[in-house]
Design a protein that fits this description.
By secondary structure, this protein is of the alpha/beta class. Helices cover 43% and strands 20% of the residues. The structure holds beta-D-allopyranose (ALL).
Length: 324
């Protein structure tokens, strides 16, 4: 991977993040409980947060936000925080949900790594009497229907968010320009929606999308994909990435190809590692979906549903355009 070609500060942030995440991973998954024994006081619910890759700053920020919320509400609920090591490690996420079922938590707040494949184990959790709240990446509506379960969703409108990012980029492009999309894992609903949002904006501006490929949400994969795109399309004007980690990978591929300043990049997430690139103009825009608050919104929804104060209902959260 050509990460050494990233600016020094970005590379060290990325490295520090992965090392930090790995340090706590302990053989595949991270689990931390905020109360020392594994039982909640009677009447005090235990909520499990199940996330995706903790090597992604988006999820370490989310975990931090959830822990701070629990610390400020320690009398109200207990929290177990879990994440997986790789974006694609579905089996590990299934395993985590099974462990939470075995621990008899009261609620699971989950950002599913896959919108279809996670439904079966979520059904098991519901059959065990556990409330499940879906955050961040929406479960597939058809698969939920087939499984005959309902799961409330708390998260942003990813298509609208990506469209805003694409429109900001389009202001710096001309009709007929060629661009490429690096999408997330194709079976993730939020990734699909972001791709559609990018396409909406490019179509509206008359810009040609000459290639769309998956970077699987990862910096290194996106770096390889972007390098191949650059050699195949010498006249490419921009690369639209469905998350910031992939935008970091694309920027380093552009540097390696000696095309810095000639090819625009956009991302999604507003992680702090992207800030220096926004400041330098190497990334034009990203979207802030407020990762630090997303799990908290899901936890608050779960606590209200458990107390009977609110019916299970979907909740759309904010997503904001971020530029220099
Ligand atoms: C999605 C999130 C983030 C993140 C990605 C990678 O679900 O919304 O954009 O970068 O997962 O796991």
């Amino acid at each position: 991977m050509k990460i050494s070609l990233l600016s020094h500060s970005v590379a060290s942030v990325a490295l520090a993040l992965s090392l930090g995440a790995l340090a706590g991973l302990n053989g595949g998954c991270k689990k931390s409980t905020t109360n020392s024994d594994n039982k909640s006081a009677p009447g005090k619910p235990k909520v499990a947060l199940v996330m995706k890759s903790l090597a992604n700053e988006f999820f370490s920020t989310m975990a931090e936000g959830a822990k701070q919320h629990q610390a400020a509400n320690a009398a109200t609920y207990d929290l177990v925080v879990n994440g997986i090591k790789n974006e694609t490690d579905l089996a590990e996420q299934v395993n985590l949900v099974e462990q939470m079922i075995a621990q008899q938590v009261n609620a699971i707040v989950i950002a599913p790594a896959d919108s279809k494949a996670m439904v079966t184990v979520i059904k098991h959790a519901k059959e065990a009497g556990i409330l499940v709240v879906n955050i961040d990446n929406k479960l597939d509506a058809d698969v939920l229907r087939q499984a005959d379960i309902k799961v409330p969703f708390v998260g942003p409108d990813n298509r609208a968010g990506a469209r805003k990012v694409g429109e900001a980029l389009a202001k710096q492009l001309q009709a007929g320009d060629k661009v490429a999309i690096i999408e997330g894992i194709p079976t993730a609903f939020n990734g699909q929606q972001r791709r559609l949002g990018f396409e909406d904006a490019m179509k509206a501006a008359g810009v040609n999308i000459v290639s769309t490929q998956s970077g699987r949400w990862e910096m290194e994969t996106a770096n390889n994909v972007a390098s191949a795109m650059l050699s195949e399309h010498a006249d490419l004007k921009a690369i639209l990435c469905a998350n910031d980690n992939m935008a970091l990978g694309a920027v380093s591929a552009i540097q390696a190809a000696g095309k810095t300043g000639k090819i625009l990049v956009v991302g999604f997430d507003n992680i702090s590692a992207l800030r220096p690139l926004l400041d330098k103009g190497q990334v034009v825009a990203t979207a802030d979906q407020h990762g630090d608050r997303l799990a908290v919104f899901g936890i608050e929804a779960a606590l209200k549903i458990l107390k009977g104060e609110a019916p299970p209902a979907d909740q759309i959260t904010a997503v904001d355009l971020i530029m220099k």
